[in-house]
Amino acid sequence: MNTTTTRGSLLAALACLLVGGSFTANSLLGDYPYAGGQFLRYALAFLLLVPFAGPGAWARLRTLGAGGWARLALLAAVGMVGFNLAVLAAERTAEPAVPGVFVGCAPVVVAVVVPLLDGRRPQRIVFSGALFVAVGAFTVQGWGRTDAAGIAFSVCALAGEVGFAVLAVPVLRPLGPRLLSTAVCGIAAVESALAGVLIDGAGWLRRPDAVETGALLWQAAVVTVVGFVCWYMGMQRIGAERATLFSGLIPVAAACTAPLVGTGSYGAAQAVGSALVCAGVAVGSGALPWRARRGRVPGGRQRASERSLERV
């Protein structure tokens, strides 16, 4: 792995670990209006990100045109607001492991969809690594009680997770990670407010208590600001296919942090699943030495493409 790939992998891994740890914070927001909480999270993240959006931010946004803005709105609606709503809806009739298992299949879907959209064949080694990650995520979480509605909403959550990576690919180059994160957080805040009014009416927003305030601050400042920027910086360097492999670390991080608040345990199944996820990430990302030797010739063009995406 070269320096660019190593940095990209570390950034993607950090982002996914932060998101996985955020599930612990979510458990502290069970009584807070969902859409209102998302509004506060994304609005605060937007305000924190604005000073770091970079010079000429508005000029770069104007170059997107109507199509680019529509993509940003769809990215926020599907990959952020819609994803979270789908998980919430799924957990009404299904145990949390069910949407988790479906979301764990995102690396497999992205490993196929992104290359096809780019006019090339999926990379066998990335697809193989994605299968390891999906099996590992299933092993960590297991399977739980569900019904048809729970499965349907879990599929929607999977679509949201895939959309968060795939929809960002065309706008990541012109905007860069910081401005992209700033823009989608601002849009997601507006969309969350609209969803709150439609779903919860006048009670969509209230003053959070001390515990809820701490959880929302963590989600906004750490998970969203740091996590989103790191995620898109990582994706910029190693591509959407390889970056999404690291999403398998989300259930691993959730399983490791759940015992801290008494919402779960970490046992043999979680340990085996974590090992499978790490193996899949190592294989698919090219971290193993044998992968570098076997993939030197066919992988050269891909690495050149990855370097062309990097922005200093």
UniProtKB/TrEMBL annotation:
Residues spanning the membrane: 40-60, 72-90, 96-117, 124-143, 149-172, 179-204, 216-233, 245-262, 268-288
Record's keyword terms, sorted = Cell membrane, Membrane, Transmembrane, Transmembrane helix
Main localization category: membrane
Spell out the subcellular localization from the entry. Cell membrane
Which residues does UniProt call coiled coil? none
Domain annotation EamA: ranges: 7-139, 189-283
Q: Give the way it sits in the membrane.
A: Multi-pass membrane protein
Instruction: Spell out the SUPFAM superfamilies in the cross-references.
Output: Multidrug resistance efflux transporter EmrE (SSF103481)
Q: Which family does it belong to?
A: Belongs to the EamA transporter family.
> Mind telling me which PANTHER family this protein's record contains?
INNER MEMBRANE PROTEIN YTFF, OS03G0707200 PROTEIN-RELATED
Q: What is this protein called?
A: DMT family transporter
Q: Which organism is it from?
A: Streptomyces plicatus
